[in-house]
Amino acid sequence: MSTYLILSIVVGLVALGVAVMLSNAISAANAGTARMKEIAGYIHEGAMAFLYREYKYLAIFIVVVAAIIATFLSVSTALCFIGGAVFSICAGYLGMNVATKANVRTAEAARHGMSEALKIAFSGGAVMGLGVVGLGIAGLAVAYFVFDRNIDIVTGFGLGASSIALFARVGGGIYTKAADVGADLVGKVEAGIPEDDPRNPATIADNVGDNVGDVAGMGADLFESYVGAIISALTLGAVAYPGGEGVEFVFMLAVAGILASIIGVMFARSSKSQNPQAALNSGTYIGGAIVIAAAAYLSNSLFGSLDAFWAIAAGLLVGMIIGKITEIYTSADFGSVKKIAQQSETGPATTIIAGLAVGMYSTFWPMLFICIGVIVSFFVMGGATNGGMGLFGISLAAVGMLSTTGLTVAVDAYGPIADNAGGIAEMSELPPEVREITDKLDSVGNTTAAIGKGFAIGSAALTALALFSAYAHTVNLTTIDLLNPVTLVGLFIGATLPFVFGAMTMESVGKAAYEMIEEVRRQFREIPGLLEGKAKADYRKCVDISTAAALHEMILPGVLAIVAPLLIGFLFGTEALGGMIGGSLAAGVLVAILMANAGGAWDNAKKYIESGVHGGKGSEAHKAAVTGDTVGDPFKDTSGPAMNILIKLMTIVSLVFAPVLAAHGGILLNFFK
Amino acid sequence: MSTYLILSIVVGLVALGVAVMLSNAISAANAGTARMKEIAGYIHEGAMAFLYREYKYLAIFIVVVAAIIATFLSVSTALCFIGGAVFSICAGYLGMNVATKANVRTAEAARHGMSEALKIAFSGGAVMGLGVVGLGIAGLAVAYFVFDRNIDIVTGFGLGASSIALFARVGGGIYTKAADVGADLVGKVEAGIPEDDPRNPATIADNVGDNVGDVAGMGADLFESYVGAIISALTLGAVAYPGGEGVEFVFMLAVAGILASIIGVMFARSSKSQNPQAALNSGTYIGGAIVIAAAAYLSNSLFGSLDAFWAIAAGLLVGMIIGKITEIYTSADFGSVKKIAQQSETGPATTIIAGLAVGMYSTFWPMLFICIGVIVSFFVMGGATNGGMGLFGISLAAVGMLSTTGLTVAVDAYGPIADNAGGIAEMSELPPEVREITDKLDSVGNTTAAIGKGFAIGSAALTALALFSAYAHTVNLTTIDLLNPVTLVGLFIGATLPFVFGAMTMESVGKAAYEMIEEVRRQFREIPGLLEGKAKADYRKCVDISTAAALHEMILPGVLAIVAPLLIGFLFGTEALGGMIGGSLAAGVLVAILMANAGGAWDNAKKYIESGVHGGKGSEAHKAAVTGDTVGDPFKDTSGPAMNILIKLMTIVSLVFAPVLAAHGGILLNFFK
């Protein structure tokens, strides 16, 4: 086994070891009062019940798809697929298990101060972050070694990761938003009781949702991104450097990224700062600096030039810029959110129009910078004279963005843990200072998460693009020509799919939320003394509604994403499928940005009004802003994030099935000819 | 001059003659009471004032662009550009002038019965319909003859038509929606007075808006579609048949379409049926049948086969199917609208989510049928062995859809005339039976217009696609290869533009509506006795707000559409520009369908609730539905329809400037290399 593969496996195991250590430290912390333990128990139980039921569906899916792959491709690819799927499930399980322990301990720690609470919450996030990257790199290195460096087979690992990610994101997203919308609309708006009030029957489901959607769903999502980016870089690196330096570079960069993440996590965790933002930033900057230095060193020592370093630096820079742009469109410190808040004065309709306009506008600059990233990383690697080298450059930009995924996930997952801690504090009637601390932690998490979103979107676009090139290489396409009407038809169909997919997921949230609303209304009506706090709400019923809806509704979009590319490939051939991938890539990235930013902007416009402007809480403007926020919920937490996975999943399906499609695709086309 | 050119000019003049005859008949009709004449006078005056101010801006634009064209291309092209622009303005002026006469006379006629009112309103629409096609075909035939059959020069005529159309659509759309939202939100919702109540200061602006947006804007829009489709077919027909039969076929088909339209108009107008739907349908079916027969005859006699006929039939059929699909998604007789109405029960947020989901879903089937239309019309003409012939087939499908544009416009423009008649009846306090008749006419118009929208969207996609092929031919591109990252970057940028354009236009409506709302609130507050009906509202102030906002806000989107393709072409070259057109085509059609259908569905969900379900008028569900309708207004009447023009305008800009771009484009690309 080569040194870099051994190193990858060892560093992957180290990351997992650190994760276990942090997890033990969390378990050892004080879990608070009996009431706190009881509530945390409900949440943990609801979350685990959801996961186990979800796994039953996924097991069937994995078996069926593995059988198909084994039949039409190879048993090795099927094994890789199973490996990717199972590792993805492990990453999600690990993250959620620790998150549902860390939430209550964060609440307890918050009774003693900010830095204590930050330490627990951030450790919870870090367990998932290090779990994701550790499982990812170790799994890929093992698969690469076992299957004799045949990257076509290892791609199956990516397919497993991507398909589980889509189900987890869609299922988790529907779960969390159905519960959230139900809890808010009936509890806050109709009954006038505060957020997370124990009288609200949907409040446990709401807190479970934060875990299954924002923690487990997000973990599977980033596992998929991480694995996908590395696979695309391995594929193109093997083409660009037949001697193997390309592959070595990619693995070594990932190793450096994981070490950087571990150091960054330790740094942020040990910070004694009372300012959580400063603690998170210090960790993030240190991690980033280590990766940059490592990229320069590796580029020079393996390729004898800094070309690859520049591609990676371009990727990192574009990711940071997109993160900053995201913040400008979604933070109340800037004009867009203020404009939405102002339009709330003339009612919900103008609030919605303004938010949609912000979301649509906000596509421009990120897309432009993605394009700049593509152009720079392509040409800096010499793409003008050697196309394959240029494409490798694009994939390196994506790997650069995702190298510190361990840190990104830690920061991202810490938000929902703090949010949950606040919920537990509220439901356990802890003193208001505790809630203040968890709110502060939560809001810092939101800002930092914006940067993470920039990396997620940017890397999704670049990774999909690199996978797209890998696909074309595998099926031996020399052009994907838009002047061929069949390719253009592929493009049209591909561009339509993100819209259909968005519609499906939004409608699922609408349906599930409708059921939830009816149930909460029913409980308020039929359980005597509930609103007066004398009777107990039936939490379990609401948890069941969210669970059943999420599992039922995740199937169709998931199947669509896998079947659509195969259908187009078999009917119209590999070039039309290339067009389809291009179309879904462009439209998917746009819709994802629109939804994420419109949702974020509405959310913060509401919070901005709650801070006292335009009449503050309870005013007509506030009601309009709540409507905007409710529309934005499925945008930013269900449909939008799933879009990033959709485009990569469709691309990787095409890539894995490329050999079959190249041999047997284009049935309908042959008929026309 | 060839016989077919003489015929084209003669038939064009005949269409204009019939239009003048119908216009005289309308002028001769009774214009009702003094109060009716007064109100109609305000509307006529406001509409004309807007047009004249708009023309001042357009004149500057025309002169500047003509100078640029004369400098960089040729004086002949500049003359064609001016011709197209001026003819487009004439079509809009003609239509609006007659519409603002027909409205009051329709109201008066409605006092005597349904068929009398239908006759006037439909004649008003027919004047514009025949004006559009008469000016279009005569203008093109003259240009084609004068500039010696040089289609590259004649394309300038299309550029003139398209650019004026964009300004007219955007300006008119902003005008009408600002007035509508302002009148509705303050008048209906806040003050609780009925629609078109004379106490509402924005009511005249609202009725003016129907004319400048739905009549003049729509006229310029369809003039552009008609001219664009014919130009693309002429360009590709000249390539496919160097002997000239292709060109002859296109002109002759247009001639047959105009004659069919005249006959259809006469038939619908003379119908004595008390059922306006039946009258309109009879005219439409007869017109369609004549075109089908003519296509078969011409195809056989000119080409010796029915191939071209099948391409045209495919286009017509796809247009009709898309129309039917549109109806399914937007009519209260079907599930989607009912689902939105049901979601209104849980408030405005779920109404919005449901409507957006319907809009996103509704993109799928139309796109699929557009793709089928492309595939069939391409392969039926032998595209598998002769690509040029296949592309000509695609352009013929578009021409087929638009051949009866005269009838489509007549039916489309009759709706706003009936709507205006209702407003005048209300403001003049005519008996409620009159309003019932005009409402009935209006609602029939809405259904029939859905089919027209199907043709508009389908033909826009096919025309843009054909123009795109013409562009590639002119700049001598053999491929537009998505595997080239620069082309893919073009695709990304192109797909982003419809989103940015949509954001711009929606934000403009939001801004203008905000001003309007403030003004109406101010008048209610500051004019003593206004709400009691004792004082007169200051209509002129509201008209001024809409006018100023519309003219100010139409500039940026219009300039964007013209500058963007030139910028990409000059910086990144003709292939990247090809990618950009492909991207904007796909995304633009999708966003256009989404917006049109979501807007239509919200509108009808509101009307469905008003018919008495879910609590009926005044219920909470109704309020939520009104919010949906208000969000849908700029969707369906401003941003959505402008999207169709945007994609064609960008393509035709590329086509006209193709020679310059081929010679000097790709500056930045050369730098990278």
Structure description:
With 673 residues, chain A is mostly helical. Helices cover 86% and strands 0% of the residues of chain A. The first copy, chain A, is built from 20 helices and no strands. In chain A, helix 5 crosses helix 17 and helix 6 runs antiparallel to helix 14 (405-427). The longest helix of chain A is centred in the last third of the chain and has 72 residues, at 539-610. Chain A is globular and about 70 Å long. Chain A starts with a helix and ends with a helix. The interface between A and B is large, with 82 and 83 residues.
Kindly summarize this structure in a few lines.
Chains A, B: Belongs to the H(+)-translocating pyrophosphatase (TC 3.A.10) family. K(+)-stimulated subfamily. Chains A, B: It catalyses: Na(+)(in) + diphosphate + H2O = Na(+)(out) + 2 phosphate + H(+). Chain A has 20 helices and no strands.
Strand and helix map with partners:
The structure is a homodimer of 673-residue chains.
Chain A: H1 3-28, H2 34-72, H3 75-110, H4 114-146, H5 151-191, H6 203-240, H7 245-270, H8 276-303, H9 307-330, H10 335-343, H11 348-361, H12 364-380, H13 387-402, H14 405-427, H15 432-474, H16 485-526, H17 539-610, H18 620-656, H19 658-664, H20 667-672
Helix pairs in contact in A: 1-4, 1-7, 2-3, 2-6, 2-17, 3-4, 3-5, 3-6, 3-14, 3-15, 4-5, 4-6, 4-7, 4-14, 5-6, 5-16, 5-17, 5-18, 6-7, 6-13, 6-14, 6-15, 6-17, 6-18, 7-8, 7-13, 7-14, 8-9, 8-15, 9-12, 9-13, 9-15, 10-11, 10-17, 11-17, 11-18, 12-13, 12-15, 13-15, 14-15, ...
